[in-house]
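The freezer alarm interrupted the setup, so I double-checked each line after restarting. Inputs confirmed:
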Amino acid sequence: EQLVSDNELEEMSTQGSKYINKEIQNAVQGVKQIKTLIEKTNAERKSLLNVLEEAKKKKEDALDETRDSEMKLKAYPEVCNETMMALWEECKPCLKQTCMKFYARVCRSGSGLVGRQLEEFLNQSSPFYFWMNGDRIDSLLESDRQQSHVLDAMQDSFTRASSIMDTLFQDRFFTHEPQDTHFFPPLGFPHRRSHFLYPKSRLVR
Amino acid sequence: SLLPFSHYGPLSFHNMFQPFFEMIHQAQQAMDAPFHSSAFQFPDTDFLRGDDDRAVCKEIRHNSTGCLKMKGQCDKCQEILSVDCSTNNPAQAHLRQELNDSLLVAERLTQHYNELLQSYQRKMFNTSSLLEQLNEQFNWVSQLANLTQGEDQYYLRVSTVTTHSSDSDTPSRVTEVVVKLFDSDPITVVIPEEVSRDNPKFMDTVAEKALQEYRRKTR
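Predicted 3D structure, all chains:
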């Protein structure tokens, strides 16, 4: 059965609307809290970027030192030649066999071409390259190249995203309390350089 | 109080939010872009420790240097690495030791740098997921804002309240309340007997359930 009078329905509607209004306020505050979290994450990112720059400097100094040592060592005439060459002639077939077995078992793709490529590579290589750990140095240089590319790609995307968020968070919705009675004109921000998520001292890439 | 939303002005409130969605979406796209490009890949520095088969396969295909990492499995190759030329040329032996030491330092720093890069990438993922949350939260506020442009001063209007037994064999009685949230379709909310109508929390319970139903439908 219908339990309530029209007056009571009005009263219930008022109470319910107050609850909904509180929820709306919470939702608006929620938007602002997320903005604060984005700012916090970005501050952490900026300090991490400084750590990255320092680590990059140290890594590259160590790489330079390694290359210097390698150049100095290469400048020496190849001593112990006979010993090296004799060992190399026995090392190559073993290396080729081990590598082809691994490749067929693990890499699961055609090993014919790879076998010929490896044969050529070993015949062109010198045991000195091996003796000086030339393979490890080349791998380091390759990963250095990849790491620079990865950081550049991440920086580019952050720069673009931060200029958009900079504009978004400058909106009065974020800088004024909703109770403000000022009329909020539609979006139309004076275009500004994105400094919100990015220090003016933009890192030299 | 936000009541009514007119502080934002009816039209500008909705206009105001629309660009927000576009901007948030653009920021997300910008943030996620590099991770979708095939050229973007973290260097597999695991091969420095010889742990990552994938990296070795790639290197073998790329330029065969991946095979040199298997020198440990060939005695004669190991013997090359341990050839000691210091009797012929002590200076060279010293240089070689210097090279190996700096190589170890460079490998350790490269590994460390890679770990820092990955934590930097995690920061980007965090920001991207926060943008997703921002979008979702905005969506909810914007829809409410959109709905509050109606004439009715009530956000929630109760139209009927009825009570009946929840089913024939149990005497417990439930209260059924039909409400409209802004100008949504009528939403029927069933309140269990434990929350009686004279409970001060009754209408909060009704409004909370109605809002949940509304958000479920509009998601």
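Quick read of the result. Chain A touches chain B through 112 residues (CB under 8 Å).
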